[in-house]
Amino acid sequence: MTLHPQTIEGPWRAGIVLDWHTIESKLAGENEFGHPVFETTRSEIGELLYQFKYRSNHQALSQLLALAMERMAKARGKFGLVLPVPPSNPTRTVTQQIAAG
Fold it and tell me: How much is the pTM?
């Protein structure tokens, strides 16, 4: 497991994100409807999120949470708050499901 945590700036003392979602995305062509098709390489966390969010793979959620907990455990209790990023589409419940997990 390779994580790429990054610091983020804001009105807080310190913040991080656990990993990138997409490592690389290349245009591969078009589908039968003329829509672009991409070859996408995701991080491990990014792939689990994709599988949960877009493929309704609920097992991916438990794996995603386990990876997040492992990463946070390495920080030895330095987290005062964990915030899930809200979805771009407010009708999606993915963020609520992740936060509840």
Answer: 0.68
